[in-house]
Amino acid sequence: MDRSQKADAVAQLNAVFNEAGVVVVTRNLGLTVAQSTDLRLKMRDVGASYKVAKNRLAKIALKDTAYEGMGDMLTGPTAIGYSTDPVAAAKAAVDFAKTNDKLEIVGGAMGGQVLDEAGIKALASLPSLDELRAKLVGLVNAPATKVAQVVNAPAAKLARVFGAYAAKDAA
C-alpha cells in the first residue's frame, strides 16, 4: 500500500466513524473466506457493513471523532462492523459469533460511549430501529381500532334490537 492509498483508506474510515451510529470491533480467530463472506452478507442484510482495516490506519482515522476512545481495542487481527442504526451491526456480529467460535467480540462504541464485550451483547439484545417503529405504529393503530369498534357498537346493538322487534312482530 503506497502513501496515497493509505491516505484514501484513512479518509474512508474517518467518514465511516463520523457517520456510524455504532461501531463493533471483532477479532478474527481464523475465519475462512466463506465464513467472512457469510458475515458480510448478514451485516449487509441488516443495513450494516463489515470491514477489515489496518489497525494503525484505523487509529489514525479515529482521531477527532466520537469513537476516539476505542483505539485501544484495535490490536491483533481485528475488523470493524458499523451501521447508522445503533443496534444493527451489534446484533449481526453477536448472532454470528454465537454460531462461530472463530469470531470474538472485542467491544466497540456507540456515539462517544465506549462499550466492552458485555455492552455490545446488551446492545444486541435491544430491538432494532425497524422493530421499534413497527411497535410504535402498532401502539398508535390499536387505540384507533378500538375507537372505531366503540363508535360502531351502539349502531350494531340498535340494529339487533330492531331486528328482534321485527322478528317478534312477524311471528
In short, what is this structure?
With 171 residues, the protein is of the alpha+beta class.
Protein topology:
Elements: H1 3-19, E1 22-28, H2 33-45, E2 49-51, H3 55-62, E3 78-83, H4 88-99, E4 103-110, E5 113-116, H5 117-124, H6 129-170
Antiparallel strand pairs: 1-3, 1-4, 2-3, 4-5
Helix pairs in contact: 1-3, 4-5
Would you give an account of this structure?
The chain is of the alpha+beta class. It is built from 6 helices and 5 strands; from the N terminus they run αβαβαβαββαα. It has helices at 3-19, 33-45, 55-62, 88-99, 117-124, 129-170, and strands spanning 22-28, 49-51, 78-83, 103-110, 113-116. Strands 2-3-1-4-5 form a 5-stranded antiparallel beta sheet, sandwiched between helices. The longest helix has 42 residues, at 129-170. The termini are far apart. The mean pLDDT is 85.
What are the main properties of this structure?
171 residues, 6 helices, five-stranded antiparallel beta sheet, alpha+beta
